[in-house]
Design a protein that fits this description.
Helix content: 40-55%
Shape: globular
Distance between the termini: 11 Å
CATH superfamily: Aldolase class I
Number of domains: 1
CATH class: Alpha Beta
Order of helices and strands: EHEHEHHEHEHEEEHEHEHEHHH
Structural class: alpha/beta
Strand content: 5-15%
Radius of gyration: 21 Å
CATH topology: TIM Barrel
Number of helices: 12
Number of strands: 11
Bound molecules: zinc ion
Strand order of the largest sheet: 2-3-4-5-6-9-10-11
CATH architecture: Alpha-Beta Barrel
Amino acid sequence: MSKLKAGVVWGDDYLTLLKACKDGGYALPAVNVIGTNTINAVMEAAAKNKSDVVIQLSNGGAQFYAGKGMKDGFKAKVLGAVSAAQHVHLLAQHYGICVVLHTDHANKPLIPWVDAMIDHSEKSMKENGRPLFSSHMLDLSADDIEFNISESERVLSRLAPLGMSIEIELGVTGGEEDGVGSDEIDNDKLYTQPEDCLLAYERLSKIGHFSLAASFGNVHGVYKPGNVQLRPEILKNSQALVQETCNTDANPLDLVFHGGSGSEKAKIDEALGYGVFKMNIDTDTQFAFAEGVGDYVDANAKAFKHQIDPDDGTPYKKQYDPRAWLRKCEESFITRLDEAFVDLKSVGKSLAE
Ligand SMILES: [Zn+2]
């Protein structure tokens, strides 16, 4: 198996990593991050599990990274993404794992966000010989299929010369992710049509590399059991149609599983067999981060109200130091990710030398 240099992978190295996942029957967790605590926790968890990993930012996560107080929200979304990418480029190699850098759902109003990030990658390519991100997602699944595909063609034409990839969505992931998406959609839209996958393959693979978030009943967020009907056989049917029509090898589509939080383990397992190389996880890691600080505050309640104990004068500096409780958040986040690496069978599979 070919090895890769530790750090951010893009271009041919990204394709090598992706192929290793599909050939090896495993996938990488794609974890939404919002700041250095979550980014470092993802890299620490990946290193601990000797797995490669996808680090991704939603538009809201990127804005939060730049700071909620920045007056120009659009600028914050762009510069927050750039800043986060620079942080990962500097540190990932020292964690000894390969990191795919990606941005999450961008619907029609967010197309200018994607174009602005590509401007920064073009600049980075000129100055440093590398793009900032490995790929961007363009999610035009709420629009008609022709607009979805033609706009994806336009964006991929900008990405391909930089060695970058695009992730698109066909069919609709239920629920809402950071303001993109809705709870009110027809049930049949929750399931991608194999014919649409074929159309995307025929038109996009000519231009560059694309991956596909195909909907098979998956929903963002965590719901009561029974409310979500996952049908991974939709992925299988889409792969079969492309393979037959275009005379390709098995599993020609590089598939992404959105709404991985709270999914049944058997369905995750089945999806891995149909060419899923990336599974997004956000809701469960958000909860894990919160749980970490919640438990700590419960155990150290006085330190969050007094610098010195009002009764016996005990100083609480060590307990209220933000490093103490932010570390608990990171540890709890890492524990949840340990589970994701096991579910996706990527433990010990890092390609990093
Ligand atoms: Zn998603």
